[in-house]
Design goal:
single chain; 180 residues; mainly beta; 7-stranded mixed β-barrel; 32% strand; globular
Amino acid sequence: MEGTVTAVSSDSGHGFTKPNRESVRLLTGLGVEGDAHAGVTVQHRSRVRRDPTQPNLRQVHLLQAELFDEVAAHGHRVAPGDLGENITTAGIDLLELPEGTLLRLGDEAVVRITGLRNPCYQIDRFSKGLLKEVVGRDAEGGPVRKAGVMGVVQQGGVVRPGDPVKAELPTGPHRPLERV
């Protein structure tokens, strides 16, 4: 499975959106250099309040650009970085990859997928009604999260728009992604 990086974004503050960059540097075991969510332990404010010693399974947020067209059909205008993602991709279905998938980004960087992003009410502050579009329901009424995947940096490196993304599936039984 292959795709392309379409945008990279980072922000040193804990704002909702992240400005696009020419490149980002991924740091092994930490996340995106200079990003507010980089660190060995959790950096997401609500999780820090609960237990600041938790491992940071959300070092890098990746989002599929195909979501932008999907939500545009429902009146929501979303661009790369708007939903707080660090890396926007195209051509690879991130949501269908199993836990533990390695994403090779560009020449050096490797991110291990840890789970699904669990979007919060702040999405509706960005665009009223968007939360309903990025968290749908399956036939049994269970949540279907479409706001991207989270991962940890296995190997650092610089990532730029236009870089290839290659998925390497884990060995053994595949576990579907759950929220992290």
